Amino acid sequence: MKRRTLLQALSASVWIGAMPWVQAADLGSHLHTLVIRDDYLGMRDLLRQGLDPNTRDRQGVPMLVKAMQQESLRVADELLNSPKIKVDLASPSGETALMYASIKGNLALVQRLLAMGASVNKPGWTPLHYAASANHEHSTEIVRLLLENHAYIDAESPNKSTPLMLAAQYGSEGMVKLLLDGGADVQLRNQQGLSAVDFARRSEREFMVKMLDEAYQATRRSKASW
């Protein structure tokens, strides 16, 4: 399809602005290619022609989330520059741009999304869960930033796992300490009956087991004295 024909199809397409699903096969394929290749100039051109930045692909994934999945950060930047962008749109599995920025350790993008009003709390998996599942250079700082923006520290995933449990298995010692100091409940268990201590133990992170077990015992002693 020639570029002019493509843009004409874009302008006439019924899913511009309102329809959430891609319905033009050629255009959908073109958008997919732009995201995969991080072709920000091509995306900029389409946005100027009237493309809704909140368009979803055939799987229902918003372009911004798809760009984050693929780490196509220049395309993500173009989408975020659009005044029409809705930063909280989620994929069918509930994943948002902030969740991907958090798990990928992209502090600058987390800061930008928060400044644009991205939601920190949501049912099920949250950005804090995702941040706690990572161990990048800025992961602990991202956890701190989310907490400063009122992330619920003991948020429960669908199987009732908390950010502390995930940090115990995947995060740094500093991240776990940050969560404990912030009041994370070390005694909570998920639907499998596992606590944060169990998460650390099954990953053979003995240094983490010791710290969490000490926090667990201190909490028990504190409650026993009430």
From TrEMBL:
Entry-linked Gene3D superfamilies: Ankyrin repeat-containing domain
Keywords: ANK repeat, Repeat, Signal
ANK repeats: 93-121, 123-158, 159-191
Domain of life: Bacteria
Leader sequence segment: 1-24
Pfam families linked to this entry: Ank, Ank_2
Protein name (Swiss-Prot/TrEMBL): Uncharacterized protein
The organism of origin for this protein: Comamonas kerstersii
